[in-house]
Amino acid sequence: xxxxxxxxxxxxxxxxxxxxxxxxxxxxxxxxxxxxxxxxxxxxxxxxxxxxxxxxxxxxxxxxxxxxxxxxxxxxxxxxxxxxxxxxxxxxxxxxxxxxxxxxxxxxxxxxxxxxxxxxxxxxxxxxxxxxxxxxxxxxxxxxxxxxxxxxxxxxxxxxxxxxxxxxxxxxxxxxxxxxxxxxxxxxxxxxxxxxxxxxxxxxxxxxxxxxxxxxxxxxxxxxxxxxxxxxxxxxxxxxxxxxxxxxxxxxxxxxxxxxxxxxxxxxxxxxxxxxxxxxxxxxxxxxxxxxxxxxxxxxxxxxxxxxxxxxxxxxxxxxxxxxxxxxxxxxxxxxxxxxxxxxxxxxxxxxxxxxxxxxxxxxxxxxxxxxxxxxxxxxxxxxxxxxxxxxxxxxxxxxxxxxxxxxxxxxxxxxxxxxxxxxxxxxxxxxxxxxxxxxxxxxxxxxxxxxxxxxxxxxxxxxxxxxxxxxxxxxxxxxxxxx
Length: 484
Prior knowledge:
Layout: H1 2-12, H2 16-34, H3 43-51, H4 68-80, H5 84-106, H6 114-124, H7 127-134, H8 139-154, H9 160-174, H10 181-193, H11 198-219, H12 221-239, H13 249-264, H14 276-296, H15 302-321, H16 335-351, H17 355-379, H18 384-395, E1 400-403, H19 405-413, E2 419-422, H20 426-435, E3 441-444, E4 455-464, E5 475-483
Parallel strand pairs: 1-2, 1-3
Antiparallel strand pairs: 3-5, 4-5
Helix pairs in contact: 2-5, 4-5, 5-6, 5-7, 5-8, 6-16, 7-17, 8-9, 8-10, 9-10, 9-11, 10-15, 11-12, 14-16, 14-17
């Protein structure tokens, strides 16, 4: 009778693995909500913030492809909880949990195992994942979705329906984070080649249809096509930071590697805090052990080889066609392979059953947590452009602002009352010369060879924020302009 009661209890209650996953889910959700930010940190975040009030791709709220799936959930959460910061953090918290879950699955481990638990903690305290969990951006949700697709496409499935889920989610990915598609394109093609059938294509088409049809109804077909043409051409040939417009290959490679190592993994870089050195040392050891173990068993690593091929293709994609110099967030999907490699290294160390090594491992996790905590605290403070905005709103002593279109737009949207001049528009600059204003002119940004011969340029105030929180506009210099 006692045995039957135990069996009955085990069938009703959660398993240890499920309980741990449930705990991690609520920890992800609670921690991201607590660290929510309540200001607009950059121009990209501004686009998504505006979409909560007026979703309009033609007005770049947000820009094409519109990220309708992400924006749909953000708008729903915002309608329930009228807090912009918390709404985006809820999506970030759920996405963080999904990332942990599918990294465990792709790494072939459970959270109840020592190495699985450490892997979960490394992802939970990963600096980029935590910061992106609070950003007003779709990257983390897209990463979570891409990982689930890799799982359904790459790992052997006991049910064929799981493969169809992968095709459906790929269609959803197009409406969440289109630029992550290269990460899943190899296994997608492979699964299509292995017995192409109408059902696979149907599920993929259904995944696209659930967001594309409403998007066409909201935006209008012609308007959507026009936005697609304009933004696609602009991204690749004008403002997207691709290899076409930013073709210094040394910079592209160095900044990409720095983004992976320092922004993505919390490692040491020049001018960064010495606290990151211990994490760097331990990461180096774990990665070395992991790579050695993988190389030794390479012939047997069938599914890991598929993951590596997918990440290599994605790496080449961002190196060529994404803004890797100023936006480190593009390397986010590449972290998957490092999570797996580090976990293999952790498994090797824990297998030694050495108390000293176990303590060092925990110190590594605690050090990573400290680095992330410091960045999270910095993240709650306004970025440089937000500080500038606050100053202008509070002081309100500037009549004319001369800067880039993006900074001008950011300040305008925040109701900074001034006349705005585009620094790159010579006609507007010529009008300034003709008007010959006497005072209250601010230049935002340090620009060389300005055509202001009749004016005196005086350095005013400089605004900073931690570049490892957000690389965009981490230093903003301002100058005052007056007649000589």
